[in-house]
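I am still getting used to backbone structure tokens and would like to learn alongside you. Please make up or recall a protein chain and show it to me in full. Would you write everything just below, so we can both look at the same thing?
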Amino acid sequence: MKNKLKLNTDVIKHEKNWKKRLRFILLLILLLFLALYMVIGIIYNSGSFSITLDKNLYFDKGLIIYDDPEYKVYRSELLAQSPESFDNVSEYWIPDDIDDLGGGSHNGENYLAYTFYVENMGNMVANYWSDVVIKDVIKNVDDAVRVRIYRNGEPVTYAKLAANGQPEPDTVAFESDNIVARSFVENFMPGDIDRYTILLWLEGNDPECTDNILGGEFKIEMNFNSEHIDY
């Protein structure tokens, strides 16, 4: 009788230990899924466009970036949030004064628009490089993307080469597979301000804007550096 009781006690103890281990394993799996979800959320919900400033441009030359002229402080990064919807549109649907609406986001239905400033608040003449870098593309959505960059009111529209290897109408071809545009600004004097507006949309008139790119992703960033950097 005692042996049978001891056996039952061992079985119960074993079942309790097994249930504890199972709960621990399930909790661990849940935490891993939660961590993965948070990482994906940070990557894909932080906006389609970000701006970063090389710290050397600030510490050595006194350059800063900002999107509010009333709040000029050093920041290494600015983030532009995506519009709520992002379907294809024609560039003719975008307001002509999109570059004249002040700093910050001016998103409309199905396009991203963001204005910010680079200012030399130091005492030295500066030079800087700017690169618009493609960080992520899913389902070849970049085939139909347009990126228009205004610098001090002067716009240039960039697009990936067409399927025939020629530039899309009224656009400049991407610099490379992972760089939209690159430029060099020299003799940026103390007190000078460069105003940038970035406009991003899917061009509905592009022959490659088809159902094949539905659900795609396109993320870019604009980097300001003190020297040329290979990406």
The chain has two domains: 1-45, 47-225.
